[in-house]
Amino acid sequence: MSPTPTDVEQVELANTAFYEAVERGDFEELSTLWLEDEVSCVHPGWPVLTGRGEVLRSYALIMANTEYIQFFLTDVKVTVLADAAVVTCTENTLSGGPAEEAGELGPLVGQLIVATNVFRRTQEGWKLWSHHGSPVLAETDDEEDDETPA
Amino acid sequence: MSPTPTDVEQVELANTAFYEAVERGDFEELSTLWLEDEVSCVHPGWPVLTGRGEVLRSYALIMANTEYIQFFLTDVKVTVLADAAVVTCTENTLSGGPAEEAGELGPLVGQLIVATNVFRRTQEGWKLWSHHGSPVLAETDDEEDDETPA
């Protein structure tokens, strides 16, 4: 018998499943990964979306406009406290939209995005409660001159 | 006797206290508002900061470089599930850095930032577990053409 995965391992798997569902454009799978309760989502540069309807509609739109997307996750950090978990990670994304001409892939664009994903323990496993992604605009090595607030 | 504030009211007060501490540049107060455990923080355009030391140092730097900052919070939404809470809000900020000449205020800059703040219930009240702020770059009214992923 293999040992029961720890909470941290389970949350990390739920986090990976989320990105894989987006990569595959698997809307049905993605829907099952979000809580049934009130959820919220911020895509990079977007305002806040709240509620399952608004959040899932945004993914349907993104999937319709994305021909190809791949996430290389780095710096994945998981913190579990009782029935909630916070995951932070860097999404190194490579994506392309539909091409102008049918059958061709649009130009691929690389982006550096950081995400905070909040999960909630349910009877059906860990479910997404909140996703917040944002573009990294500043250098990490020297933040002393950065005046960006809060 | 006034009624005991609900969880949602308590979380909203903790959220307001967080922004007021940054407005006042009150580092001591701000330190007491964060969990003692593993915390994470993303300032707009920044990479992820993890751990109390790294997070609090970033606020010390921001406070040192910010002469004036004011937050007008709108769209504050609170969700509480057991001992954890997610707050989303729009931070309409007005801020200014130190001026070139001593005694003068630097130019004021307005910014539209959205935040996801995660709180955790402790014996000393609700404490910040995660803060993620990001600039709003896109229009909210017509997202159909937006191809920004995940």
Tell me what the structure shows.
The structure is a homodimer of 150-residue chains. Chain A is an alpha+beta fold. Chain A has helices at 7-24, 27-33, 52-65; strands at residues 40-42, 49-50, 68-81, 84-98, 105-122, 125-135. Chain A has one domain (7-136): Nuclear Transport Factor 2, Chain: A, CATH 3.10.450. A six-stranded mixed sheet of chain A has the order 2-1-6-5-4-3. In chain A, strand 1 (40-42) and strand 2 (49-50) form a beta hairpin. At the A-B interface, helix 3, strand 3, strand 4, strand 5 and strand 6 of A face helix 3, strand 3, strand 4, strand 5 and strand 6 of B.
Itemize the secondary structure elements and their pairings.
Two copies of one chain form a homodimer.
Chain A: H1 7-24, H2 27-33, E1 40-42, E2 49-50, H3 52-65, E3 68-81, E4 84-98, E5 105-122, E6 125-135
Helix pairs in contact in A: 1-2
Protein name (chains A, B): Nuclear transport factor 2 family protein
Pfam family, one (chains A, B): SnoaL_3
Domain SnoaL-like (chains A, B): 11-136
Task: Describe what is shown at a glance.
Two copies of one chain form a homodimer. The first copy, chain A, has 150 residues and is of the alpha+beta class.
